[in-house]
Amino acid sequence: MSTAVLNKPIEILLVEDNPADIRLAKEALRDGKVMNNLSVVTDGVEALNFMSQTGKYSDAPLPELILLDLNLPKKNGLEVLQSLKADPELKKIPVVILTTSKAEEDIVKGYNLYANCYITKPIDLKQFLEIIKTIETFWLSVVSLPSMAGNLQ
Fold first, then answer.
1. Is the pTM of this model over 0.90?
2. N or C: which terminus of the chain carries fewer CB neighbours within 10 A?
3. In this predicted model, what pLDDT tens digit does every residue of 64-87 receive, in sequence order?
4. Which residue from 121, 139, 123 is spatially nearest to 77, judged by alpha carbons?
5. 63: which DSSP letter?
6. Is 152 a member of any domain?
């Protein structure tokens, strides 16, 4: 059952290193229809630490949706995706790749690593905001997400 139906905020993790895209995503989600808590990390290693709740992320909430850029420092998005989907505790969390790459190779690799969706970021500001709102509407209002509070297996 979708947690939006339960009227509880949805936990979202944005893995993005571009400050402008972070700002736009925050703005779009803040103005959205679904209550959400957005956490942001800016590189692949930080994303994996957040997801494993290690170091400064020991109290981090497990997200119910991950928005993942591919072009990240330290560990790229495909490496992050591969690690997440190989972990039995994390593999059910939907991962939406949100990146500037239109390369067919990246799209194929993303889906081969079990990305739930691949979206190419538009350059236009208005279109970018619309994409974020569409992601929110689909993934947080339409789709039923597994509860992160219970056992994921």
1. no
2. C
3. 889 999 999 999 999 999 999 999
4. 121
5. P
6. no
Residue 4 in any domain: the answer is no
Whether 62 and 111 have beta carbons less than 8 Å apart is answered as: no
User: Residue 147: which pLDDT band, with cuts at 50, 70 and 90?
Assistant: low
| 3 confidence band (pLDDT: 50, 70, 90) | very low
Instruction: Evaluate whether 25 touches 67 at the Cβ level (below 8 Å).
Output: yes
Q: Are the C-beta atoms of 141 and 4 separated by less than 8 Å? A: yes
**What is the per-residue pLDDT for 153?**
43
d(CA 85, CA 2): 21
**125 membership: H or E segment, kind and range:** helix 125-137
- The terminus-to-terminus CA distance of the chain in angstroms comes to 16
pLDDT of residue 4: 43
In a domain, 93, yes or no: yes
Q: What angle do CA 111, 149, 65 make, to 5 degrees?
A: 30
Burial group, residue 11, by CB count within 10 angstroms (0-12, 13-18, 19+): buried
